[in-house]
Queue: 3 jobs
Job 1
Amino acid sequence: MDSKTHILDILKHADQVVSGETLSAELGISRVAIWKHIRNLIQAGVPIVSSPKGYRLENDPDSLHSSGFGARQALIHYLHETTSTMDDAAELARRGCPAFSVVVAERQTRGRGRMQRVWLSQDGGLYFTVVVRPEIPVVQAGMANLAAAVDLADVLRTDYRIDAGLKWPNDILVDNRKLCGILSQMQAEGEQVGYVTVGIGLNVNNSPETGESNAVSMQSLVGGPVPRRKILEAFLDRFEKRMAAFDPQVVMAQWKALNVTLGQTVMVLTIKEKIEGIAEDVDALGGLMVRQTDGTLKTVMVGDCFHNRKG
Ligand code: BTN
């Protein structure tokens, strides 16, 4: 990477002012050379603020540092690298963090998906977990998951004109290619939900297509890089409002309006079995109701769903 890109990369990932001395040591060039690169970057319109203490990138809409989140700043826990934001968020939740605390990371070394799958977390994607504390019975906990999918799909559709659809239980697809996965984990207190950690992996400025032919990113859909902080803020605006006035029936109606699973021939794999048939409906708790070939109706609460699959 050239020196300017290297400097920008360091400033992007720093949570505070970076001194000229630090940059000079990192790049192995003189402080005067650093200053010349910074001056060229500023002249090119990059919002770098220079002070006696050093340099800081201001208001980069792609930056996920807490400092860019305004009134939400105290709730945002930014990590350059972590194992999985699910673990960090669960730890915060156990220690009593406020609802809507968010752990967001540039990279995950052990990102995980549903059904014990690995979630590859290439640079440029948006990987975060939100802690919610809905006052709902345990049986309705899955609805928080569906609510997150509805709200994120709304951001994609309204703000980015992306034709996002929801595959049961909560993948976001565009033209049958996966743009986003959502994983949520719940901790119960008796019959009530204690907290839910909702983890979202959204392909934004990464290129998942290279590894998985049925995956897609926002940058390839809109034809250029998309600033990640704007997406996260737009999602949190909707999701906070939604959870403050949580209504499972509204969530379900909105989920159904956006779904691309119902009416399809599906194969659903659960830990124990394989269910095949037509996806007929989703019940009030989010279970998928599959009309099997022998005419019986089977409801699946947890599983992996594949569309247009027979036999
Ligand atoms: C899936 O489609 O199987 C769900 C993928 C969820 C991935 C996100 S990325 C942020 C959070 N941290 C994780 O380790 N997983 C979730």
Job 2
Amino acid sequence: MTQDTTKRPLYVGLAGMGTVGGGLVQLLKKDAEMIRRRSGREIVLRKVLVRNLSADRAALLPEGCVLTGNPADLTDDPDIDVVVELIGGTGLAKELILKALANGKHVVTANKALLAEDSKELFDLARSKKCLMRYEGSVAGAIPIVETLGGPLAGNRILSLHGILNGTSNYILSEMTTRNMDFATALSQAQELGYAEADPTLDIDGFDTAHKLILLIRLAFGLDYPFASMPVKGIRGMDSRDIAMAREFGYRIKLVAIAKLHDGDSKDARMEAGVFPMLVHHSLLLARVGGVYNAVRLEGEASGPLFLHGRGAGALPTASVVLSDLLSIAREDRPNNTGFAGDEILPTAIVPPEDWRSEFYVRLMVHDEPGVLRDMAGCMADEGISLAQVIQKEKEGNVVQLVFMTHEASAESMSNALHRVAEKGLLQAEPVYYRILQ
Ligand code: HSE
């Protein structure tokens, strides 16, 4: 087995310090130690390409990293191993990626518009230069769908795919549904929260979803679906009357991306694909995807259905998968069978179960007599346990079920409190108690 022992850092040039770029800078600083343990080397941010070279931005950068306004400072620097493109759009971003690849640099991008509309040249060049081009951040924010389709699901024929792929649209529809908010207010909130594209028409007219769907179709089925041929309708002008009527019938309106293969995967196979608002029955998981969350439901021939759910937009969620692309590149050619580099699996310091804290459900069988509830509550109070809800149920002779929920407490104090209750002779059967998962 070849073991790469070099500890040389992976040197990175970042283009764009907007929402996701800013998130990546934060994570690279904050999680430097985790990154080193996972990849066995440091990931060092050398240069950041921005339009506005203000001192405020420079102050956010890690030590030794400089701002530049010149793309060639990234693409032509022989010490930079990877260019991360987070500028978006199809102009400068494409030039930058082509130049980086031509100079033998790996590329990480989250540019779904470019990858969906005009990526052949990029992928061809990356292949001929033996460079990696990774783009987990381009689809569904924090959900690792790109890697999942190309990796763990590669042994499975994918039959169909349904997705909620635009956080802004899903946020707007959710706000309109649950808060009766109007379309324009919900859109401006999504923009303030950093979910929307620089050009929000991409979000609300469905094209951002369509870009992502084109990438998923390529990854899931190995098929090239031309963007210009895709039927796309967004949520612009969505009328709250339709949202309310759909609810009455038991449905939620969602902006759904669909891709289904007809006629197997023979050479006659045809793809049904498109993006449009749909009524989704409330019992389906897709209907429960709320706010900025995204989800992808896949039907695999061997695996059966799979459902991935997570934050679809926002600085840190998307930056986290851009960082994972950098980690994959940093680990390239290094055996990494545990998720951490060689000897970076550390002994665990264990929290004893009695110290775990949670809320509890407790059922006691007690006599239905004056003072029982007071004594039981006293035992709880003596251990610092506060009761949240109490119900008394079903008398069986003189015995009743006394059921209560507590506020957060340690398992040790709960066990001690129940011993106290038992010692007072209050219990007519063994107590039952479970932790509550909130
Ligand atoms: N504007 C996009 C969205 C951001 O709302 O999902 C992530 O691609």
Job 3
Amino acid sequence: MGDCIFCKIANGEIPSRTVYEDEEFRAILDLGPATKGHTLILPKEHFADFFELPEEKAHHLMDVAKKLAPKLVSRLHADGLNIIQNNGAAAGQTVMHYHLHLIPRYENDGANLLWTPGKMSDEELDEVLKTLE
Ligand code: AMP
Ligand code: ZN
């Protein structure tokens, strides 16, 4: 993926504010942070999204997230943390190299990350359930 900026960042060809690195992943500070400490975990190998990420890498990714999330909260004195991951343009993905967002949250930080609850009838919910059986 010669023109993928996150490939270059993950592999150290473009400098980044790296908060964690191992043989498979790099975690960096987001350049347009939703809040203080907004961190992205990127695989060094190119995968477009969650669907392409192999299962073993997904497990390793969760190990990295389990290490970093509590560190972000404690060191930055955050009150909470969102873990977000967008897949596809329709879901808000803008960089087509897999990345997991760790977003520390602070009381009244004004970050607008949550959705408005929708409405669905019992019949519609049952129909969805049937589709997933
Ligand atoms: P998404 O919308 O889930 O694809 O998220 C892309 C994220 O990457 C956004 O939060 C951007 O602020 C961030 N971003 C884009 N380019 C860079 C970069 N060069 N270094 C660090 N973060 C970046
Ligand atoms: Zn890439």
